[in-house]
Amino acid sequence: MSTIMVVDDEAIVRLLLKTILENSNYVVLEAFDGPDALHIVYHHHIDLAIVDSDMPLMQGSELVRQIKVKRPNMPIIMITANPPANHGCDVLLVKPIKSADILSAVNSLLAP
Fold first, then answer.
1. Long-range contacts made by residues 93-101, C-beta under 8 angstroms, separation at least 24?
2. Does residue 95 carry a pLDDT above 90?
3. Which pLDDT belongs to residue 83?
4. What are the tens digits of pLDDT across the range 42-89?
5. Is residue 81 classed as helix, strand or coil in its secondary structure?
6. Assuming Cys at both sites, which of 15, 56, 91, 100 could form a disulfide with 77, CB separation 3.0 to 4.6 Å?
7. In angstroms, rounded to a whole number, what is the distance separating the alpha carbons of residues 52 and 43?
8. Residue 35: is its pLDDT beyond 90?
9. Distance, CA of 85 to chain centre
10. Close Cβ partners of 23 (under 8 Å, ≥ 6 residues apart)
């Protein structure tokens, strides 16, 4: 079973993504900001991260950069309302996002 980290400063978004992913048999760890996410990456095995682009303390693109330093092969999906010019992620999904879009991206990135 794959473990996915969901990083978003909005609790309702984390809950929504967690529900979608857990209903598809993924294990989900939640982080509310960049520093919290980095702590999880350093202390847990994560197969994939879903990162919001706009968060306090650390923008999503900076978090992606720091994750890639520690885990260069970990796939990352960024969700955003305003696509950044340099996001560094594997998949960029623009809000509003449908559950089918998230699952399609996750399944394609985690496919053997």
1. 99/20
2. no
3. 76
4. 999 999 999 999 998 899 999 999 999 999 999 999 999 887 666 789
5. coil
6. 91
7. 21
8. yes
9. 18
10. none
Tally of residues, the chain: 112
Asked if 8 and 19 count as a contact pair (C-beta separation under 8 A), the reply is: no
**Two tokens, residue 47:** 């197969």
**Measured distance CA(71)–CA(14) in Å, rounded:** 22
* Separation of alpha carbons 101 and 16, rounded Å: 13
- Give the Cα separation of 110 and 60 in Å (integer): 21
Per-residue confidence (pLDDT) for residue 84, from 0 to 100: 67
Q: What percent of the chain clears pLDDT 90, i.e. is strictly above it?
A: 85
How many angstroms separate the Cα of 35 from the Cα of each of 7, 15, 38, 40? 10, 19, 5, 9
